[in-house]
Prior knowledge:
Layout: H1 2-12, E1 24-26, E2 52-58, E3 64-70, E4 75-80, E5 83-89, E6 104-107, E7 112-120, E8 129-139, E9 145-149, E10 151-156
Antiparallel strand pairs: 1-5, 2-3, 2-10, 3-4, 4-5, 5-6, 6-7, 7-8, 8-9, 8-10
Amino acid sequence: MRLALIALLATLAGCSGAQPSASRRAAPPAAPVDDGIPLGTLPRQQLAAGQCALFLWKAGNEARLVLMARVDPPMARIAIGGQQMDLARTNIAAGDGGSMFANAVYSDGTTTVTLDVRLEQRSTLQGGAVVTDGSLRLDRPDGESFVMPAAGLLACR
C-alpha cells in the first residue's frame, strides 16, 4: 500500500492546468499491460486551481493509475483500448465528504463504471483523503463485467 501511495503522489505532483473537454482522446503510448484488468493506464492528470479529484489505481507491486473522478464537473476518466474516455456521472451525488463517491455511477450510454469507495481524512494530507475501502466495477456493451478492489486518494489543488 505504501508503494502504491508513493506512486500516486508522484503522479499527482505534476497536476496543473485544465484538461481539454473532449470526451475521448488518444492516450499517450504506454507499454501494454497484461495483468487481467481491462482498464489501461492513465497518464498524469492535470487539475485546475481549486479543483479536487479522486484517483484510483491498480494496487500491488506494479501500481498504475486507472481512474480519475471529479465532482465538478461530475465525471470519471478511464482508458480502454488506448483511448481515454470521460464518462458523465449518471446518479445523484450520495452526499458530501467521504460519501461523495459511494455508489457513484458514470456512463456514456455503453460503458459504465460504478465506484463504491470510503474516504478517510488524515492529518498528514492537507485538503485530501485516502481510500480506505472500495471497489470499481466496469460494465462493457458486450456484456463483459469486471470488478476490482480500489486503492486511491482524493487530492485537491
